[in-house]
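It would be a great kindness if you could assist me with a short task in structural biology. Thank you for your consideration; the sequence and its tokens are set out here.
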Amino acid sequence: MSATPTRQSVMRKLAIWLAVAAGLLLIVGANTHLVYVAVTSQPECVAHVRPGEGGVQPGSFSAADSACLPQPQGRGAPGSE
């Protein structure tokens, strides 16, 4: 008996290694995309109910500690033009 690998076993091993490499590339690519989006995105402040505001409807939620400052009404405010 010969210890030389057959063509079929070599092709099987090659296919397994290619599948593993493709899976790793997919994981690295997805993680790279997530990091890119997290670093480059600058979400705007979203309108929400601020603590202490009146006229709150039941079931409304607010941020526990909003990092956004209230926008002044009038000149320069979004949607004022």
About this structure: The helical segments are 7-40. Residues 7-40 form the longest helix (34 residues). The mean pLDDT is 77. The chain is about 40% helix and 0% strand.
